[in-house]
Amino acid sequence: MKALQKNMGKVDTGIRLTLAVVLFILFFTNAVSGTIGFIDLGIAVLFTVTSFVGFCPLYRLVGFKTCPTKRI
Asked: Does pTM surpass 0.85?
């Protein structure tokens, strides 16, 4: 199996982690609840995981990268 190549830069990672923290806070303070709350929680988990891994499957699907390219 081919290893996943990073496609997220530091700015993108920082934005995702910041949004994840905000979404976690909204969920755990009951600012959002019910179905919307669980969608919020799912998005927060997804943002956290993709930030730590450095890979976004949606970016790969559309051929988008925010990480800098290595120059030879």
From this structure: no
